[in-house]
Specification:
This protein has 74 residues and is an all-beta fold. Helices cover 0% and strands 26% of the residues. It has no helices and 5 strands. It has strands at residues 19-21, 27-30, 33-36, 42-45, 49-52. The chain has a 3-stranded antiparallel β-sheet with strand order 1-2-5, with no helix packed on it. It has a two-stranded antiparallel ribbon with strand order 3-4.
């Protein structure tokens, strides 16, 4: 935390975002976020914590809908 109680700042004055990789699950990112997809389009979420799909099975890709729970990768 910085002196004002907010998230720590990275060099250049930008706030750092925490990213957590969940084994066998999504990538959790402190929000809000703007995700740039492969085709150049963007997906936006204003939530305070965003789960991004890592298995590409989600019907709401790039956001996780827990589809990874139905079948595990080998």
């Amino acid at each position: 935390m910085n002196a004002t109680g907010g998230p720590p700042e990275a060099p250049g004055g930008r706030e750092r975002r925490r990213v957590q990789i969940v084994p066998g699950g999504p990538v959790l990112v402190e929000g809000p976020v703007e995700v740039v997809l492969e085709d150049g389009s963007t997906a936006v979420s204003d939530r305070w914590l965003v789960a991004l799909c890592a298995c590409r099975r989600s019907r709401t890709y790039p956001f996780c809908d827990t589809s990874h729970r139905r079948r595990r990768r080998d």
